[in-house]
Amino acid sequence: MTQSRWFLVISPDGAARTAALHTANAFRSLIGADRCKAFDCATYRQAFENLLKKTDPAMVVDLLNQSLALSCLDFQATHCLVAALSPVTLFTLQLLRKHGVKTVHWFYEDYRKATYWKSVMTGYDHFFAVQRGAVETTCGGHGVHYHFLPTAAGCGNPEYASSQRPYDGVFIGIPSTYRITVLETLSGKNLRLAIAGSGWNVYRGSLQPMIVDGAWIDDDAAFRLMQQSKTGLNLSFDNPAGRTDRQVSPRVFDLLAAGCLLVSETNPLLDESLPGCSLHTFRTIGEAAAVITALLENYQEHSPEIERNRTIVLQNHQYINRVGAILRETGGA
Fold first, then answer.
1. Fewest beta carbons less than 10 Å away: which of 62, 102, 149, 197?
2. Nearest 10 degrees: CA dihedral of 72, 75, 79, 85?
3. Are 168 and 231 in contact (CB under 8 A)?
4. Can you point out the beta strands (E) in the chain?
5. Looking at the DSSP assignment, which residues form a beta bridge with residue 229?
């Protein structure tokens, strides 16, 4: 049987790019660098923008896709994995399939916000997603193989850094009206928080003394901050009331690996994403403060719960575990 050869399309920006880079590294570790080729959308996009006298976004996407298709076919890829938010068109996907390339997408964005998936889904043989709901239903209606696949810890296999953990809770992510409301409520209960993430540098309000970093924070810096907090907060961007198909943030895996007690809104996908782990959930903003306060009253840094959660994440929720699942489900090992 011919060994698979994987063409990996790397997202151009932000957290999606970080996840794509982790995925590419995991592929290299599992099947060898000679069987993988990464196509960096950021590099090609910048090159074509510089080449054109007048930047035309549509032309840039078209040129990028031409380069992508040629590079994929020249590599003689058997599989093409496109990471979330990569500007790959339906035409390109259909072209690759005509040449026998199996197309795969890992969609780790909220399908309500990143709506491009609707226009390209039919170009994929396999569609991995961090949500169910409309994505799973639409895949079924178009004969696309759907797979539930959460993201993973970006921290690798770090040393456990014991510390005094001066913070009661840590939140890392961009600000939103809902998140600000929750965090301001918690700070009003005299909880000491550590807040970081792109966009907090323009916030003006009671949380300002608790903002550790208001710009983009990389995985290593985020993990070090998590290791200084007793609890870790997972908060949706919008008020989650009435929604049952919210995605699970990649931060939850890092929080548990860092030894934080995870505090989150109730979310059915949490239990599915983290089987065997102990989680602490709330339904209302008022409940959140009560949950954290109760945890702090009985806090022990190396409790059996914390150590068990950490072990489960480091053994089962790394990117290498997720890539292993992709290889199995697509027959691409």
1. 62
2. -40
3. yes
4. 6-10, 36-40, 79-83, 102-107, 126-129, 145-148, 167-172, 193-196, 211-213, 229-234, 261-265, 280-282
5. 167
Residue 159, helix vs strand vs coil: coil
Distance CA 217, CA 172 (A): 8
Residue 153, SS3 per DSSP = strand
pLDDT in tens, 204-223: 999 999 999 999 888 889 99
Q: Mind listing the pLDDT tens digit for each residue in 10-24? A: 999 988 999 999 999
CA atoms of 57 and 318, how far apart (whole Å): 35
What is the per-residue pLDDT across 183-205, written as a single tens digit (0 to 9) for each? 999 999 999 999 999 999 999 99
Beta bridge partners of 230: none
Does the predicted TM-score (pTM) go above 0.90? yes
- Tell the residue number behind the tokens 């390209």, with chain if given: 120
Question: Residue 210, Cα to own-chain centre: how many angstroms?
Answer: 25
Sheet strand arrangement including 229-234: 211-213, 193-196, 167-172, 229-234, 261-265, 280-282
- Asked if residues 238 and 135 have their Cβ atoms less than 8 Å apart, the reply is no
DSSP state of 202: G
Query: What's the token pair of residue 301?
Result: 């840094």
